[in-house]
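quick one if you have a minute, typing this from the bus. theres a chain ive been looking at and ive put its sequence and its fold in token form underneath. please have a look and point out which stretches look like helix strand or loop to you. anything you notice is useful, everything is just below.

***
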Amino acid sequence: MALMAAAARFFIRGANSKLSITGAVTGAHSSFRATLLKLSPSCSSRAKTQRRHAAHFTYQPDPVPTQYGPTQKMNLFQSITSALDNTLASDPTAVIFGEDVAFGGVFRCTVGLRDKYGKDRVFNTPLCEQGIVGFGIGVAAAGATAIAEIQFADYIFPAFDQIVNEAAKYRYRSGNMYDCGKLTIRAPWGCVGHGSLYHSQSPEAFFAHCPGLKIVIPRGPVQAKGLLLSCIADENPCIFFEPKILYRAAVEQVPVEAYTIPLTQAEVLQEGSDVTLVAWGTQIHVLREVANMAQEKLGVSCEVIDLQSILPWDIETVCKSVVKTGRLVISHEAPVTGGFAAEISSTVQEECFLNLEAPITRVCGYDTPFPHIFEPFYIPDKWKCFDAIKKMINY
């Protein structure tokens, strides 16, 4: 606690402060103290604030898709709006509901839809997540298309029982006489630079333990629209997590008309021969940058795979890549213990043991609540991933 208090005062007051943290930490904590003291004394508190909230990645847009017709420049939230617009236009049973969605939602993903389609199809709900999902289960079981929004993925846990014990099992408990497969649950997901404890979590691993669900996380606008439309059309309840740091940062040419991208299928974004890099969502852009660094600085060829679907996940594509490269790095923002990287690691170890040239490496968040002023130390940034590759190559 002494370390945390001292370090917090250091960041808040600025490096010109007379604060000394000498003696506040010993042993294993001394390296953390040294990291803090590497900051230049000439840095102002304003500069440090800007640095602290700067994105830990450089967004790399996908090529313009040509197979789906005319495109339009959209950021991530606009591509979500476009997918929802397509759905409401083509499916008269489709309804969208959640906290504040009627006037566009806190991230503007449903802006304009109530005015276009009416208050009976796009409407607000009480602040009650279990009620939102419970209502969605009923709507879907009755045969309509239900698209529920949980305002932040961090607040999906009050609805955990409804999702895990009801939605996921509805088909099985009735012997397939009834189902709620037309239910899609959307939620903003992941860190955003200043969300801290309650607005930065990545809870996909909690739901990956539950058969009967599909869990999808896109990396950008083109993927987001196609994957969301696939979730809405799928005959299983789907959870669609949207990287909120990309809502405005990610901009691509997105097809205007409806199109789908297959679920449960990973995508090889960059072929390589030495190391396989696996991630999803925002972390894909970190690994793309890391792959370029590894090629330039180490002469190491990296294969980058976007998992896209967390449940079920594409074992075949990942294992095929690891058989070729002999090395695997998995990265995600969630804590390392029990994170989905552990499932991937275990499976690859079982399937590709004789092909591995080095231990599988996970570069993830720490086993702590998501911090605020210490976020730069928590995020699995490009330098942590690059160090993992260096260690792996020299193993």
